[in-house]
Amino acid sequence: MTLRFEPILAEGIAQVSYFICDDSAGFAAVVDPRPDADIYLKKARHYGVTITHVFETHIHADFLSGARELILRCKGSAKLYVSVEGDASYEFEHEPVKDGDEYVFGEVKITAKHTPGHTPEHLTYMLTDTSKEGQPWGAMTGDSLFVDSIGRPDLLGDEKTDELTQALYKTMREFFCKLEDSVIIYPCHAAGSACGPDIGDRMSSTIGYEKKYNPFMQIDNYDEFKKTVQENAPPVPTHYSKMKKLNAKGPETFGHTPQVRALSVNEFEEEMSGADTIVIDTRDMLAFGGGHIEGALNIGQRPILSVWTGWLIDSNAPILLVIPNDKDLERVVNLLWRTGHNNIKGYLAGGMRNWQESGKEITKLPQLSVHELNENKDQYQPLDVRKDKEWNNGYIPGATHVFLGELTDKLGTLEKEKNYAVYCASGYRASIASSLLQKNGFKNIHNIPGSFKAWKAVGLPIEKKEETQTMSEDIKQINDDISVAAFDPDKGSFKTFAEKGFKSVINLQTTDEDQNLDPNKEEELANDNSLKYRQIGVSKENLSEATVDSFRQELENLPKPVVVHCTSGKRSGAFVMMHIGCQQGMSGEEVIKKAEEMGFECDQAELEQFVKKYVNKKTSID
Fold first, then answer.
1. Taking the model in full, what pTM does it have?
2. Which among 301, 419, 432, 486 could disulfide-bond with 444, CB atoms 3.0 to 4.6 Å apart, if both were Cys?
3. pLDDT of 477-486, one tens digit each?
């Protein structure tokens, strides 16, 4: 007997489904399947088992449920089990699941637990060894609890958000926080999903780890919980509300990957004349830039294609495809299917080669290197299409900012005749945006391959939204011995530190995060300016009492005065104020208040909770 419990990641939408079987029992269950369901049937054949149960944790909003598609392909062996808690209703055949219902698969028992908050009907499925009745060993948490994060409660509209936020808080405090630390959590989403704020990179965790590091599990005050959840929620993709309704109704099923016609050049051109038809060109940005069909959108052939098609294109819109190679068709169709796009009228057989050899017109999208942009900056208006959080961490000087997901609605804020140089982090989203602008009549659009990563890699200047003050004003003196630099230093900063009389520098940035200078370069510049230098990388993963103790020890031993920096001053301010608070016998709450008065607001719930706990423990205040 062998228990098989396998997570299956759908990249792009960052969705995780689960295959569970006990090969001695001969049957299996699948939880939260995606629509391209062959992968589950292949696993069943590999292990010699039959899929008999297909479970859903909740009505999904971010991807097209594959539950009914999998049921169809199982040819009668499986039934579909969905939650009927929270007055949930469906327009398709199903088996109702309620809180406490149990299902046994050989040596593993699955128990449904109602965990509302992300949605009213949400279920978590607990996993228990039948030979060791008692505490569960695992929990398939769906979209209620993620690694480092939590499910968002705002997807049913403003009128339901407060009610769901209260339910989510109750779920955290009265259910998840009371589980044993050893219980392993298996969420429905990994990093990259918009179903929760800043979901962690790992695909699983433990309750004990999350209690220690997940900020949403540490908050025991409802008002603070509500504020943190609302302030940290990422933008809601435009397709979520429609997808939820479609999943409750029951998506169309095919029994196979949706079939797509191969179209000749003339047939393709004829289909293009249809109302609302969208041409998606999935080639690389440089190939697209060299020549493409006028009006095409360049959504490159990566897993994230699913998400951006969901953001930008209505699921009912008729779609025509231009792909790099005809053999790529099934992969592209599956990616589109995951966000409900199956109205695909055809693809251009032979691709752009056949189009251009037929003498058809092509349009170019000029590609501009970061060097060319820098050398001719007076000729171009940089347009940043990244998320707000990315923009706030630094941007090309003089740039205008419009997030790609909102670009369609904000076209009227841009000038059609202006020379725009469009960039994102690497160029992928920039090429989508550039093609969208071209499609909407903007004449002078240039895409930036490599984009912000390339700009930083060659050491070109960066502005930050916070940097409206001079460097001197951004160095905040805490006392005669300690100051905090509320910015990410560049090459000239260390000379400034020395000129201002500092003797030592402590850097709290990690080696992995984006920064103007890596720690080795900082140390070299510090030595050149006769400054002592220490680097103590601080991140969510290593935020611990020992890390603060190490920082405080270095602070005591280094020559004074010392300047402490990170990227924005938030970590530096928090660590310095913990040190001051412990020295002065302050409470954790007093330290937070004092930090805010000095401009070091802890806007990350995890950091705020940690500061309070550390100071209270060190000063023996309960």
1. 0.76
2. 419
3. 888 899 998 8
